Amino acid sequence: MKRGQWIALAGGMTLGLVGVAAGVVLSRREGREAAQRWLTEYGMPLAEQAKQVANAAIEQYQAQMPKAVEALNTYAPQARDALGNLVAQAPQMANAVVGNLPVGNGAKS
After folding, report:
1. pLDDT at 56 exceeding the cut of 80
2. How far apart are CA 87 and CA 94, in angstroms?
């Protein structure tokens, strides 16, 4: 097996074992109560922070997206023209490079 496959296998096994351990812990009443206490204490503030981060990301997206679309619409035709010119010149450039290569004993053909 390749290294990446071993890493994926180890990660999958670890995740599986963590899932089984969480299932065993939560199947007990003490585990459920502890999980509820932790969620009440830490989970709600985390959820509020996640909402704030998401709202900030949405605001940034809404502010930047029109600028990005405008830049794309402005420069895409120029890039397309420049690429077309390069592609059109490619055969001549290739012939010039190949024509200057030494042949056999170092003499030009």
Report:
1. yes
2. 11
What are the C-alpha distances in Å from 66 to residues 49, 54, 60?
A: 27, 19, 11
pTM tops 0.85: no
Give CA–CA dist 25/32, Å, rounded: 7
Contacts of 99 (CB under 8 A, 6+ apart): 108
Look up residue 108 and give its DSSP letter. -
How many CB atoms sit inside 10 A of residue 43's CB?
A: 13
pLDDT in tens, 25-53: 777 888 778 878 887 877 777 778 888 99
Integer Cα distance of 27 and 34 in angstroms:
12
Structure tokens at 55: 């709202």
For tokens 């959820």, name the residue: 47
Residue-wise DSSP of 20-85? HHHHHHHHSHHHHHHHHHHIIIIIHHHHHHHHHHHHHHHHHHHHHHHHHHHHHHHHHHHHHHHHHH
